Amino acid sequence: MSSKKAMRQAQKQAYAKHRSNITNSRFELKKKFLIKDKDNEKRKNKN
Questions:
Q1: DSSP 47
Q2: At residue 23, what are phi and psi to the nearest 5 degrees?
Q3: Which tens digits make up the pLDDT trace of 17-26?
């Protein structure tokens, strides 16, 4: 494999990892907010 081809492949992999990190972190944030909202609703219903 030529160095040019290897560099291109490495850049593609790095970009794919970057995109998946963004997607995963966004999903994790949504999950945290949903859990907080559910907890708040439970507390309100108990009172």
A1: -
A2: -60, -45
A3: 988 888 778 7
